[in-house]
Every structure is written in C-alpha cells, then in structure tokens.
Amino acid sequence: MKFIFKKPRGFVSVSLLCLLCSCQSLSTLTSEIVSPASQWKEASKAGLVFAEGVVADKTGKIYATDLTRTFIMKENNPGGTIYQYDPGTGQTTKFMEPSGMANGLHVDKNGDLLIAQGDDTGGRALLRKNLTTGELKTLVNAYQGKRLNGVNDITSDALGRIYFTDARYAPGSEAFELPNAVYRLDTNGQITALDTGLFRPNGIEVSPNGQKLYISATNFTRLPINPLGPQVDRFGITAGGVVVFDLDANGQISNGKLIFKDDELAADGMAMDAAGNLYVATHNGNPKEPKSRIVVLSSKGDMLQTIQTPSGSLSTNLGFGRGAQSSTLFMSSALPWRIYQLQTNRTGHYFN
Prior knowledge:
The protein has one helix at 14-31; strands at residues 41-44, 51-56, 62-66, 81-86, 91-96, 102-107, 113-117, 125-129, 136-140, 142-143, 146-147, 151-156, 162-166, 181-185, 191-194, 201-206, 212-218, 240-247, 253-262, 266-272, 278-283, 292-297, 303-308, 315-320, 328-333, 338-343. The chain is mainly beta and 352 residues long. The strands form seven sheets. The chain has a four-stranded antiparallel sheet with strand order 1-26-25-24, with no helix packed on it. It has a four-stranded antiparallel sheet with strand order 2-3-4-5, with no helix packed on it. The protein is globular and about 50 Å long. 45% of the residues are buried. Residues 1-30 have low confidence and may be disordered.
C-alpha cells in the first residue's frame, strides 16, 4: 500500500523556519546604524581647546576647527585654527592659522572648503577656500548693511546654494546688529533671510533629495542672549532640538516641524547619510560633568539609534569620511579638543 503524506495547512518545514530566522537576524543586523562591536577610536588630539566643523574633502582628508575662545585661552591665542587630518597616515597638520575663529566647515559640490568665521574676535563671515589653488574669498559678512553676528555652521545643496546659521555663542564686546537667523546665499551672491523662528540656530543640513532642510538649536539661556531676537523659540525648544522644513526648488522653506527635542542637552552639529538619516551631536556643554550622545533620526524624524560617545567627550559636530572612510563617522569634541572616529553600517552623504 502506498502512503501519501499531505502537509497540513500552516505547516512550515524546520529548514524553512531556520532560513526565515536566519534572514530575520541578518535583516536586524544590517538595519543597525552602528553595530555593538564597533568602538570609538581617537583620531587626533592636536588642537588646544574646542573642536568643531569636522568634514571630509574629496580626497578623504578630514578638516576640523579649533575654537580658541579668548575667555578660555587668555594668552598666546592664535585666533583659531583649522587642522587637516589624513586618515591614511594618521598625521594631523595645521591648515590655516589664524582662522578668524572658524567654527563650522563644509565642502561643497565643487570641492571647495566653506568656512564659518564666528564671533569672539572672529571674522563673523562666510569664506570659501579653493583647496586646489589655495585662493581664499569672503562670500558674505553682512545682511542689509549690518554685520553678521557670527556664522556658526554651513551646508549647501546640489545647485550650489549655501545655507548657514548666524548666532552668538561666546561673550564679547561686539555689538549685535542682527537677530539670530538662518540665511541662504544664492550662486549669484544674493542673500536671503529664512524665517525659521528658532531662538538660537546651530547645525544645518540639506537632505540628499534636496527637499528638506534640517536645523538644530542650542537654546541654553546661559549663552549670550541676542536683544534683537527672536525673543522666544517658535517650537518651544528649551535646550536642544531639531526642526525640519520643506525645501522647494527655489530654496524657500515652509511647514516647519519639530522632530527632536531634548530638555537637558543642546543639539549641535549634524551629518547625513546617503539614505537620508540624520545624525545629531548633543551635549550639555559642561566639561566638568560632561554628558553627550549622538542621536540618529530617520528622514521622518523617527529615533533609529542612540550612540554613546567616548567617556569625557562633548560631541560638537559630525561628518562622514570619503573613499575608504565613507562609512566612518568622525566626531569633533570639545574641552579637551579631540577628533574621534567610529565605523558604521551606513555611507555618508555629500553632494558631489
């Protein structure tokens, strides 16, 4: 007699179950931004005070600033420094000194280095440096005839338009001439103020598809208060937060939405990966009792992962490497000056 065995409904073979579990595990592993086994490594400790503006050029070299604040470094102050770190050799060299108290840095689609000169004896201007010829040019230092407060951070889009934040972060005798603001600089040199409603804007990024503009805020009241405003934060950010705006083809913003808020830690510099995920450096600004972490948000604002930073660090800015380092996240840290690196499962975004 021939027996015929029929699989009951809902039956799944053991081998198939194993395969499904294996695929699920693989999916979970590859969906992680940073694997548990990945550890921070110190890349450089060449600077003196406050690291910022970490970014990679098209050759893969990393640039970072040193904000040598005069209320911290009272003697033999170089006026700020830009360092160049070579991941291939591990060497760090001075690239520009004095830097005009350079803060944020950005490399645009042409491969030029954009430099945000801040306040506290700084140039309070946005500069462009051609990394091939060495030519240095001031792009803007005023709006409607009034001096900028202190350019803090910069980004650009695929068309070459530049977006930057302008706010005062250090005590000083320089008079405020403009409210804290965010500006767009078009390729023809025209500058436009963007109405964000943020009390003290800080980091800034354009999404890979060019349709979103992300801006972080550092709203600690212990920092200098601009009497020209804004008087309050439109989104209710008290310490740190990130707001995303729709960005149209003309570079105009609309529909601002709060996607991240932290009532203890400031939101500082940011970076983006090729999938449109946003990496936000957060910290309490206190070197005696430092608290710091990196939060990773999806393009919709969902929290994807929280990355703990090295002990004693204050994460001020982030930038992905390029070439062999395109999946390496670099972090600048302040008080003391440090550059750290971390291997991720993502590729960084640059408009090339």
